[in-house]
Amino acid sequence: MGGTNHSSFCYVHSLLLTVGILSDSGAYVLGKTNLDEFAMGCGSTDSAIAGPVINPWSSRQTKPVRSPVIAGGSSGGSAAAVAAGLCPVALASDTGGSSRIPAAYCGVVGLKPTYGLLSRHGLIPLTNSLDVPAVIGASVADVSAVLATWIDSTHQPATLFDGTRVPLDPVQLGRYRTILLELSSGSVPLKPPALQIGIPIEYHVPGLDPNVAKVWDQVAGWFADELKYPICLVRMPHTPMATSVYSVLCATEVASNMARYDGLRYGHSVPTGTMPQIQNSTESRFARARSEGFNSVVRGRILAGNYFLLRSQAGRHLEAARRLWRLVKQDFDDAFKQVDVLLTPVAPGPATPLDQFLRLDNRTRTTLDDVCTVGVNLAGIAAVVVPISLSPENGLPIGLQLIGPAHSEPQLLQLAMWLERRSAFTPLVDWNSLLSDLESNFSREDL
């Protein structure tokens, strides 16, 4: 949920409201996970603290054998921890796919909630207008249980809504929580209610792995043949522009949010007396503190954001991005007038080998990997990722994404639970067996 390579940036997890809610409900906080610096990345390879996050499925990869592959980003450490069996659930954030891509790459469940459903209080901001706390779990039931515990519209309202979205009222919130608790306990009907499923034509992106496309078609067939759901193609013509819109909006808000890290109150501080006298000015100290305190990806986004915010450039870039943002959102609004749920890939392919991923610059990597995920953030709606199968080419997980309108999480999670059981995906760690063993050997007081 944020972090960098200097001890002065160390994050106190108790400040995060969602962590406090879980702790108060009896959850144990096991530790912090690795991620891209300040959550700026899509591979969890840009952390200077512990290096790249290695996907636990690397040991199962068949081609090339045992070559390290990425865990996805920016919340790759959270997904890797769940996949490796270190914990049943992990917290994450999602600004453009940061929880969903790692979930797909690591073969676990990832939920990006509706913007404004959960408080962002304590979340280190990347892009305030898009950031949401997210959850990654070993199963849909685990994710549902965490979400049911998280929901509380009375906490820190300034970090919930931006004035353009309508919150759930107390009655809706209570009904919402009840459904989630039923999902977490498995007491809801296995077959979801009748839904119409949409397949966005534009999500068949250039470079889509044939194995991902095959799984996409297979799951659409399950919905049609076994649940008797109507399947229809929908047009979302502004999808190809979404990553460009995201890049401009993200950079401009990063430039603003990172301004606080000047080495005085926040961020890396340059000790007095370590600079030549001729450079010992306030401006020079700021420049050195930010140069040493940020990696190249963060510095690059700050520079790009400040450029987009120049009076001479704002109309050309920022205002254009805002206009296109509305069009991307309108695509989803129009789609949900025709269908109830969208079924899409999460990324063009399974996890990429680490050495191959590192050959590309951050901007190129983000453009390639986030094409199927950023639109959900721009629209402020809900999405859940479910692992389906392993690629026959390299043995790595392939997941798909279910997208629904704002506040459709109960409906999405019920459908995701059916899909989870239908796919019968075999994880690296069987948590049901693991928990049974733990319960038979330890009492709660012993843990």
From TrEMBL:
The chain positions of domain Amidase read: 19-413
| An annotated GO cellular component | mitochondrion
Q: Name one GO molecular function term.
A: glutaminyl-tRNA synthase (glutamine-hydrolyzing) activity
| Alphabetically ordered keywords of this record | Signal
In this record, what's one Pfam family? Answer: Amidase
Q: Does the keyword Cytoplasm apply?
A: no
Instruction: List the Gene3D superfamilies hit by this protein, alphabetically.
Output: Amidase signature (AS) domain
Residues of the signal sequence?
A: 1-31
Q: Which InterPro entries match?
A: Amidase (IPR000120), Amidase_dom (IPR023631), AS_sf (IPR036928)
List this protein's GO terms for biological process: glutaminyl-tRNAGln biosynthesis via transamidation; mitochondrial translation
Supply the name of the protein.
Glutamyl-tRNA(Gln) amidotransferase subunit A mitochondrial
